C-alpha cells in the first residue's frame, strides 16, 4: 500500500485520510509516536492536537521494578539525596518512582540508541557505552549484583537493609568502581543511577520526581516561567515568584 | 521497487537552514521545488509552545528534537590502525532532525569568520613561512574571500534578525564592537541583547585587561523585528531555553521563525516529511544526477526525478550521501588522492570553569547567544611566532541557561557529587557558577577523514559514516594557551575557584563538546583538493550542490551557522543567476 499520494497538490484532508489508512498497515519505519510520511504544500499545516504533549506520570504502583528492586532503588536515592532541614530526600521527592517510569518507557528500553551488532566488549571508554544491555536491563543486572555484593560483605543483608552509613560506604565504593559486579560494572551503574536520580530530583514534576518542586526550591529555579523581561534589569535581586511546573501550581488547580 | 514521482526542477535533501533558504530563493526564481526531510514536521505553535517547551528532561536530556542513534549514527576510531566503534548513545555531538534541522535547537550564535580564515593557507605561509606549519597539517584556502561572502553574511543576518554591535562598518572601526572583524556593509539589524551579571563582569574585566569586549552576535531578537521576507519576530524573553529547545516566542532565528511561514505558502514548493533519501541517482554517463530515491514510513521506496539536486543535510550526512551515491572520489589518506571525506575537522574547547562566592547570578535568566566575547586570541589576530601552534578561539562568558539537571553537576573542585555535603552546596553553586570559554579552531590533517564503515550499518542496511579522528598536538597546545588566558580573565573577575580545561590526550566521544563537525566535502579552487567549487557545486556531477559546514576546508574559532547560511545564499545566487542560464560547471576545472 502506498504511503504517499502522487499528486503534489493533493489536499491536506485527502492526505490525512491516506496517512490514516497507511497507519493500519502495521509495522512502519517511522520515528516517534507513529508519525507517518506525508507531503505538505501550499499552507503552514496546523490542526488542533497536532502537538505531541509530554507523557505525565501514571500513578499506579511500580511499572518496571520488582518489589525488591524498588526497595533497593529507594534506598539508593535516599542516600544520594538525603532528607534534611534543606528539604526532602530523593526518595520522598519521588526519584525512585521517576526512575521506574523512565525504565518502563523508551529511555529504559534503549529505543533511541544504536543497538545493532557486533558488540565489542572491553572497548576503551573513550568510545562510549558499548553494552548490549538496555538501561532497564542494566538496572536489573546491577541491582542483583549489588544485592549479592552486600550480602557477601555485610552479614547477609541486602542493600536496602543496611544502615545509612553502610549504604554510603557501598555507594562510595561503587563510585570508584571497586566492587566487581557481574554483568554490568559497579562504576557505570553508579554513574547511571546518580544521573537518573538528579534527573528525577530536578526534572519537571510531571514525570513523577521533584515532588512539590522540592528540587527547584532548593536551588531557586522558577521553573516554566518563560519570561524574565521585567526582571533582567535587576537580575541580581532575589526572584520572588514561586516556581511553576508545566502543570501549573497546586494552588492554581484545586483538587490536585 | 521504487515508484516514480512526477519530475521537479529541484529536489532538496533536508529542510533545515540551508534547504529552506535555497528553497525560498529558487521558488522565487519560479522553479518547482520539493524538499525531502527524514524527520517530522515541526512548528512554533504546535511543537515549541511556552506551555510545552521549558521541559529540560524531554528536550535537554532525552534530546527529543534530535536525530536518534537508532535512526543513524557514526562510527569512530582514533587512527587507521583501529577498528571503529559505533556511537551508540548521543555524546560529544548531537545532530538535528526534522523540519528546521539544527536551526531549531541551536543557541543562535551568528558569527562571520575572519578575513584571514578564508585564505588560511596562503596567509600562514606568507606570515610565518611555508614550512612553519606541521608537516601533516592540510589547511586550505576556501576559493573565496571574506569580501566575496560579505553580501551573503549581510543577507543572512537580516533574514534571521541578528542582534549585535558592529565593530567595522566599511573599514571604520565602531566603538564597542569587534575590532578584529572584517568590514561589513552595514550594522546588525537589531541592537545587542541585554547583559546579565556574569557577562557584564566579563566585559568590564576584559576591557580593563586591555582586550576588546563586544556582545556576541545573537540570533535571539533583542526587539520585535520584521525581516525582509515580511515575517515578524517577537522580542526575546530571556527564558533560558534555547540550546536543545525550540523557541515558543518567535524570537530565536530558525527556519520556522524566519523562512517557512512564507515558503510553505508558495504553490511551487512542497516538503515530504518522515521520508529519508537513500541515495542520489545518476545517469549512465555518471556526470549528471537524475534525482533521488527515498523511502517513506511504510517502507515504500520512491524515485523523485529532478534537474538539480541540493544536498542540504547536516554536514556529516552530506558527506555520507555523496559516498553512498558515488558523487566524487573517496579520499584515500595513504595516497592523499580523492576528495570526498577529505579535511574533516571539529571544534576545540579551551576554557576555565569559575565558581564565585556570595553572588546571586540567577542563571535561569538567559538567552542562547547572550554573552560578551573577545577576539584578541582568535584566528591569527595575535602573533603566533614561537607559540608552537596556529589557530585560536573566540573567548566568551555566556549566560544561556540555568537548567537545573545540567547545573546539578556544578561544584567546587574535589567537592562531592552526592550526599549531604553535595546538597548543602548545590544552591550556592547554582547561583555562583560561570565560565570563560573558548570556541576554538581545529585545523585539518592528512590522516583525519571520513569514509564508509565496513562493518556497521543503519536501519536500511546502508554503511554508517566512519570518522577517523583524534586530537593533534597543534590543537592541544592551542587550547592550553586559551585555557590559560580564560583562567587569567576568570581570576581577574574575582572567581574563588578557577579551573582551566583544555582538550585531553585523546578524543573522548562521551561528554558533550560541540556539534560543529566540518569538512569532508570541502570547497576550493582545485578539483584535486576539494569536492565542490566556490559555488558548492560538485566538480564531478554539475547538477549536484552540497551545502553546509561540510564545505569548510578547516574549522575556525567560531560557531558555523552564520557562515553556513551565507554560503547557502551565495550558492542560491549562483544557481539563479548563472547555472539556470547555462546548466554546466560554473568553474572550469
UniProtKB/TrEMBL annotation, chain A:
Superkingdom to which the source organism belongs: Bacteria
Protein's UniProt name: Gluconate 2-dehydrogenase gamma chain
One Pfam family cited in the UniProt record for this chain: Gluconate_2-dh3
The organism of origin for this protein: Azorhizobium oxalatiphilum
InterPro entries the record matches: Gluconate_2DH_su3, TAT_signal
UniProtKB/TrEMBL annotation, chain B:
SUPFAM superfamilies: FAD-linked reductases, C-terminal domain, FAD/NAD(P)-binding domain
InterPro entries recorded: FAD/NAD-bd_sf, GMC_OxRdtase_N, GMC_OxRtase_C
Keywords for the protein's UniProt record, in alphabetical order: FAD, Flavoprotein, Oxidoreductase
Keyword Flavoprotein belongs to the record: yes
Residue stretches making up the Glucose-methanol-choline oxidoreductase N-terminal domain: 234-344
Superkingdom classification of source: Bacteria
Domain Glucose-methanol-choline oxidoreductase C-terminal: 451-568
GO MF, one example: oxidoreductase activity, acting on CH-OH group of donors
PANTHER family membership: LONG-CHAIN-ALCOHOL OXIDASE (PTHR46056:SF12)
Protein family according to the UniProt entry: Belongs to the GMC oxidoreductase family.
Protein name: GMC family oxidoreductase
Naturally occurring in which organism (per UniProt): Azorhizobium oxalatiphilum
Source species taxonomy: Bacteria, Pseudomonadati, Pseudomonadota, Alphaproteobacteria, Hyphomicrobiales
Amino acid at each position: 500500500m502506498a504511503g504517499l499520494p502522487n499528486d503534489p497538490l493533493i489536499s491536506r484532508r485527502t492526505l490525512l485520510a491516506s496517512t490514516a489508512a497507511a497507519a493500519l498497515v502495521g509495522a512502519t519505519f517511522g520515528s516517534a509516536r507513529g508519525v507517518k510520511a506525508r507531503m505538505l504544500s501550499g499552507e503552514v499545516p496546523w490542526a488542533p492536537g497536532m502537538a505531541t504533549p509530554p507523557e505525565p506520570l501514571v500513578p499506579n504502583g511500580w511499572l518496571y521494578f520488582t518489589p525488591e528492586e524498588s526497595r533497593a532503588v529507594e534506598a539508593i536515592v535516599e542516600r544520594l539525596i538525603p532528607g534534611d532541614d534543606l528539604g526532602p530526600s530523593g526518595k520522598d521527592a519521588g526519584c525512585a518512582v521517576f526512575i521506574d517510569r523512565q525504565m518502563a518507557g523508551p529511555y529504559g528500553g534503549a529505543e533511541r540508541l544504536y543497538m545493532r551488532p557486533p558488540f565489542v566488549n572491553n572497548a576503551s571508554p573513550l568510545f562510549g557505552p558499548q553494552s548490549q544491555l538496555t538501561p532497564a536491563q542494566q538496572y536489573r543486572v546491577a541491582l542483583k549484583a549489588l544485592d549479592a555484593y552486600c550480602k557477601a560483605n555485610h552479614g547477609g543483608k541486602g542493600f536496602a537493609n543496611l544502615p545509612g552509613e553502610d549504604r554510603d560506604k557501598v555507594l562510595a565504593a561503587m563510585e570508584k568502581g571497586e566492587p566487581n559486579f557481574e554483568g554490568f560494572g559497579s562504576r557505570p551503574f553508579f554513574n547511571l543511577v546518580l544521573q537518573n536520580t538528579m534527573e528525577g530530583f530536578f526534572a519537571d514534576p510531571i514525570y513523577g520526581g521533584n515532588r512539590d518542586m522540592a528540587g527547584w526550591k532548593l536551588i531557586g529555579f522558577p521553573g516554566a516561567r518563560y519570561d524574565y523581561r521585567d526582571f533582567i534589569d535587576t537580575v541580581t535581586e532575589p526572584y520572588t515568584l514561586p516556581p511553576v511546573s508545566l502543570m501549573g501550581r497546586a494552588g492554581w488547580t484545586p483538587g490536585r | 521497487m521504487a515508484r516514480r514521482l512526477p519530475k521537479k526542477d529541484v529536489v532538496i535533501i533536508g529542510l533545515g537552514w540551508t534547504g529552506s533558504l535555497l528553497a525560498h530563493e529558487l521558488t522565487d526564481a519560479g522553479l518547482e521545488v520539493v524538499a525531502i526531510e527524514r524527520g517530522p514536521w515541526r512548528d512554533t505553535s504546535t511543537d515549541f509552545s511556552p506551555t510545552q517547551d521549558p521541559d529540560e528532561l524531554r528536550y535537554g536530556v532525552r534530546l527529543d528534537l534530535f536525530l536518534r542513534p537508532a535512526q543513524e549514527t557514526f562510527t569512530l576510531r582514533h587512527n587507521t590502525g583501529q577498528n571503529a566503534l559505533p556511537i551508540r548513545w548521543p555524546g560529544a555531538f548531537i545532530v538535528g532532525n526534522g523540519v528546521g534541522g539544527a536551526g531549531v535547537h541551536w543557541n543562535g550564535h551568528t558569527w562571520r569568520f575572519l578575513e584571514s580564515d578564508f585564505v588560511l593557507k596562503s596567509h600562514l605561509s606568507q606570515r610565518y613561512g611555508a614550512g612553519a606549519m606541521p608537516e601533516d597539517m592540510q589547511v586550505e584556502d576556501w576559493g573565496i574571500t571574506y569580501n566575496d561572502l560579505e553580501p551573503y553574511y549581510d543577507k543572512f543576518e537580516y533574514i534571521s534578525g541578528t542582534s549585535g554591535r558592529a565593530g567595522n562598518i566599511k573599514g571604520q572601526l565602531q566603538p564597542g564592537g569587534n575590532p578584529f572583524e572584517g568590514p561589513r556593509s552595514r550594522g546588525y539589524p537589531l541592537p545587542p541583547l541585554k547583559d546579565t551579571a556574569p557577562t557584564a563582569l566579563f566585559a568590564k574585566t576584559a576591557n580593563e585587561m586591555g582586550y576588546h569586549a563586544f556582545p556576541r552576535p545573537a540570533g535571539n531578537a533583542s526587539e520585535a523585528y520584521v525581516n525582509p521576507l515580511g515575517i515578524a519576530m517577537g522580542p526575546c524573553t530571556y527564558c533560558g531555553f534555547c540550546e536543545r529547545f525550540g523557541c515558543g516566542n518567535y524570537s530565536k532565528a530558525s527556519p520556522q521563525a524566519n523562512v517557512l511561514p512564507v515558503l510553505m505558502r508558495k504553490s511551487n514548493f512542497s516538503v515530504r516529511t518522515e521520508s529519508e533519501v537513500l541515495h542520489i541517482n545518476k545517469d549512465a554517463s555518471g556526470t549528471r544526477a537524475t534525482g533521488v530515491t527515498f523511502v517513506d514510513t511504510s517502507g515504500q521506496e520512491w524515485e523523485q526525478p529532478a534537474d538539480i539536486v541540493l544536498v542540504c543535510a547536516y554536514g556529516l550526512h552530506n558527506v555520507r550521501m555523496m559516498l553512498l551515491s558515488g558523487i566524487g572520489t573517496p579520499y584515500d589518506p595513504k595516497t592523499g588522492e580523492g576528495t570526498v571525506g577529505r579535511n574533516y575537522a571539529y571544534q576545540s574547547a579551551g576554557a576555565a570553569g569559575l565558581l564565585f562566592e556570595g553572588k546571586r547570578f540567577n542563571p535561569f535568566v538567559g538567552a542562547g547567544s547572550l554573552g560578551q566575547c573577545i577576539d584578541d586570541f582568535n584566528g591569527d589576530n595575535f602573533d603566533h611566532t614561537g607559540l608552537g601552534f596556529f589557530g585560536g578561539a573566540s573567548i566568551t562568558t555566556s549566560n544561556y541557561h540555568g537548567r537545573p539537571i545540567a547545573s546539578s553537576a556544578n561544584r567546587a573542585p574535589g567537592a562531592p557529587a552526592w550526599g549531604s555535603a553535595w546538597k548543602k552546596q548545590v544552591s550556592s553553586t547554582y547561583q555562583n557558577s560561570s565560565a570563560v570559554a573558548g570556541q576554538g579552531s581545529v585545523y585539518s590533517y592528512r590522516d583525519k577523514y571520513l569514509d564508509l564503515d565496513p562493518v556497521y550499518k543503519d536501519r536500511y542496511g546502508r554503511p554508517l559514516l566512519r570518522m577517523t579522528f583524534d586530537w593533534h598536538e597543534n590543537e592541544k597546545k592551542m587550547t592550553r594557551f586559551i585555557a590559560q588566558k580564560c583562567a587569567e580573565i576568570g581570576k581577574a573577575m574575582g572567581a574563588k575557584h578557577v579551573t582551566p580545561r583544555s582538550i585531553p590526550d585523546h578524543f573522548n566521544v562521551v561528554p558533550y563538546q560541540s556539534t560543529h563537525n566540518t569538512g569532508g566535502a570541502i570547497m576550493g579552487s582545485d578539483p584535486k583538493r576539494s569536492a565542490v567549487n566556490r559555488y558548492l557545486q560538485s566538480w564531478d556531477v554539475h547538477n549536484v550542490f552540497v551545502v553546509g559546514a561540510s564545505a569548510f576546508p578547516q574549522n575556525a574559532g567560531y560557531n558555523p551557522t552564520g557562515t553556513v547560511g551565507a554560503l547557502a545564499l551565495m550558492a542560491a545566487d549562483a544557481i539563479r543567476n548563472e547555472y539556470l542560464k547555462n546548466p554546466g560547471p560554473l568553474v572550469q576545472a
